[in-house]
Amino acid sequence: MSDVAAPPAPSILEVVRRRYFSSVGNTLLTVVSLALLGTILWKVLDWAVFTAVFSTSGGPEACRGADGACWSVIGARWRLIFFGLYPYEEHWRSGLACLVVVVMTVLSCMPRFWSMKAISVIWIGGFAVFYVLMKGGVLGLVRVDEQNWGGLALTVFIFVTTVIIGMPLSLAWALLRRSELKVVSRVTAVIIDSVRSLPLVSILFTFAIVLPFVLPDWLTGDKLYRAIIGSALFFSAYQAEIIRGGFQGVPKGQEEAAKALGLGYWLRIGKILLPQAFKNALPATINQFVITFKETSLFIIIGFFEVLASGNAAYGTGDWTFAYVEVYVFIAAIYFAFVFSLSRYGAFLERRMDAGDRR
């Protein structure tokens, strides 16, 4: 073994100099890029903060002629954005229902609850509380039908219901797709590929508008639930392929060894293959969750008052029609908060699993 000591790690300043100021060309490009980014940042801050109007006392007239953003529209219309058509005096129920979903999500992210039983109890129980708060009709709560739901609560409801229905269905598709019976495997593949070949908008339109014409009255149900079933079917088709890819990442020798030990099918799947498949599929699964949350905005096309439609109503009525940019920026911030938190949690899970592998 050599006694020569390893060279010291370069300092941050040395790394910056090598990457961005190593030559005249790199230095010039770095300076121009910084100047451009600084100009853009200053323009954004000047519009959004320094010259913006925040007061709601003056109404729309306070923003007339202002150089910056008119955040007064958010202060005046935030209830409409968050709660949509939900009755004004019952807004506390819609807000509490959203808080229940946040708590449910946080509990699901804690390692101590990472078991099938605990996760099932948290999600099913949390969803039941959410639905009771939104729907009412029991425990002294005023009944509020689904056509009066709206805003952020409806967006969260669509996302959570899609995932709750779609995840078990996607697992069933994935297991059927890898079945040793050729007929079952091929029929499942045709179903999955057929759903994946269609745009989500067409599926939502079919389930919400077309199905009532071909189904008996007792089977049609509410339009919202039909659309959610269509969204869950679309989600499950993509997630099934993600899970199947996770299964393909598990060495075949492990399943063969489990068979040699006499383990039954469900023991092999539940104890050996599925945990590893979910781990392999984690990055793509988080990405699919992100896509699904953003795709809830498509429900506006079939007449639902989710958060984007509520935002349209917030600036589209009264004297706030000029403040549409501010409303869309605010809605974008809502989506960003949910999606960024979800992506960061996915990155945390990946680091945690990588650390577990190294141990």
From TrEMBL:
Does the record carry Transport as a key word? yes
**Residues of the signal peptide:** none
Span of domain ABC transmembrane type-1:
152-340
Q: Which residues cross the membrane?
A: 20-42, 92-114, 121-142, 154-176, 197-218, 327-349
Its Gene Ontology cellular component terms are: ATP-binding cassette (ABC) transporter complex
The family annotation for this protein states: Belongs to the binding-protein-dependent transport system permease family. HisMQ subfamily.
Q: What is this protein called?
A: Amino acid ABC transporter permease
The species this protein belongs to is Acuticoccus sediminis
